[in-house]
Amino acid sequence: MNTFSAIGSKENVTVFTKLIVREDAQILYGFADKIEREMFNHLISVSGIGPSTGMIMLSSMVPGEIANAITSEDAKTIQSIKGIGTKTAQRVIIDLKDKMIKMAFSSENVFNADNTNQFDALTALISLGFDKKAAEKAIDKIANGDDSVEQLIKGALKIL
């Protein structure tokens, strides 16, 4: 549904595809952007989630919402999707949490896209095991806009 609404009534569109080859069929899935296709690939890599369930998940939520639910370990949000039970939601969180953090798939990123130093510092702190929200707050306190990644990490570590 997200892809359908993104394409709308446009005449010229680019569709990113994923071909699934099975014994009895070859099925082509289309996505409006690379992020949606990448999320689909991650979802179907989880045991118990096939292409149909992956498409239902992406029709119910945008990739950023799914990523936020995974990184914040919000199983109830994932369970709200039709066909996803408790065990599957937990499996999705366990299997994909690290991948979502590494990819920074967040739709609620507090740093603008232009400030890659803050983003890089946040990613480094998360990979060191610090809580994302605490790291964001620490970086936000010390950032003045022209800090290097190293300066941001050192300052945030002093706060954390």
Task: Please specify the SSE layout and strand pairing.
Blueprint: H1 2-7, E1 16-21, E2 26-31, H2 34-44, H3 51-60, H4 63-71, H5 75-79, H6 86-103, H7 116-127, H8 132-142, H9 149-159
CATH homologous superfamily grouping of the largest domain: 5' to 3' exonuclease, C-terminal subdomain
Q: What amount of the residues lies in strands?
A: 5-15%
Number of DSSP strand runs: 2
Second rung of CATH, namely the architecture of the largest domain: Orthogonal Bundle
Q: So what's the overall shape?
A: globular
| The first-level CATH class name of the largest domain | Mainly Alpha
Mean pLDDT: 84
N-to-C SSE string, H for helix and E for strand: HEEHHHHHHHH
**Most strands sheet:** 2 strands, antiparallel
Tally of separate helices? 9
Oligomer type? single chain
User: Cα-atom Rg, whole angstroms?
Assistant: 18 Å
Spans where pLDDT lies below 50 across 5 or more residues: 105-114
